[in-house]
Specification:
15% strand; 10 strands; 10 helices
């Protein structure tokens, strides 16, 4: 199991993003994630300025870090929702997502598709919306296959988007697209807010998920302030193990205070917890 920190370039600080992420140069992100006890980063590129993959490759190698996942969450914050009713907006968003796929493909990385689909999918009835989504998802899956990347559709709670809120819904899309480059991922906030139960949500992925976002609905990373946790992390890890989960998990920064002590504590807590349930 690889553990990563949500990370982005300094311009991320201008976006007032929903969770706190590590920011800095590519070199700083790679180095700091390793120093704080993580294997690397889940990187959130600026869709207007996706880095040269050679620069990222150098930064990762210098720090002995990995980047198994690229996050597209900045697309919505920067006005690029994939499922927008305006075809011109969709075209711009598709091109941005494809650039991110090509960047990720350099590393054989997976690409999360969450809020990038849009917060409120408007225009037309459900059938029309589903057809737009099918066209977009098919086009992106084909591009991912060519680029050597894998898209992970992320269900999200209704407070984040009104479209694809549960793992069952996401898996229906995975089945419909039918591509080895189009699968699903998990998020503990969504599991707590949108599923009949956390166990139902994890098992609904049918063992297909290879990445999970790990943070409490309080926006704190696991194990830092247990008195604030709504989630039973031991139970979550047990169910993941029962489902044969292998891959990676990403952690947000504490929402307040000096992030380093909390990040170090969470990394140690998660490694101990996952190790207690046997090797990955």
């Amino acid at each position: 199991m690889h553990f990563c920190l949500f990370s982005s370039t300094p311009d991320m600080n201008e976006l007032n993003f929903v969770v706190k992420v590590l920011t800095g140069t590519l070199e700083e992100l790679a180095r700091q994630s390793r120093e704080w006890g993580y294997d690397g980063i889940e990187f959130m590129p600026n869709p207007d300025h996706v880095p040269n993959p050679r620069q990222m490759e150098w930064a990762l190698k210098a720090a002995d870090a990995i980047m198994p996942v690229v996050n597209t969450g900045r697309m919505f914050s920067q006005g690029m929702p994939l499922l927008h009713q305006d075809a011109r907006v969709r075209t711009r968003s598709l091109e941005a997502f494809k650039k991110i796929l090509e960047f990720a493909g350099w590393f054989g990385a997976r690409v999360g598709l969450g809020i990038a689909r849009g917060q409120e999918i408007v225009g037309g009835d459900r059938q029309e919306k589903d057809q737009v989504a099918a066209d977009v998802f098919h086009e992106l899956a084909l591009h991912a296959e060519r680029a050597g990347a894998v898209i992970m559709l992320e269900p999200a709670d209704p407070g984040s988007t009104n479209y694809i809120n549960t793992v069952d819904e996401a898996m229906a899309w995975v089945d419909r697209i039918g591509s080895s480059a189009f699968t699903v991922m998990l998020d503990t906030y969504e599991l707590a807010e949108s599923e009949p139960s956390i166990e139902h949500g994890i098992r609904a992925a049918r063992g297909r998920a290879t990445h999970i976002h790990l943070y409490d609905p309080s926006r704190w990373p696991p194990g830092v302030l247990p008195e604030r946790d709504r989630l039973n992390w031991q139970r979550i890890v047990r169910i993941l193990r029962e489902e044969g989960f292998k891959g990676s998990g990403s952690v947000v920064l504490p929402p307040e205070g000096d992030p380093e002590p909390g990040c170090r504590k969470s990394a140690a807590y998660l490694r101990g917890l996952f190790n207690a349930f046997g090797p990955v």
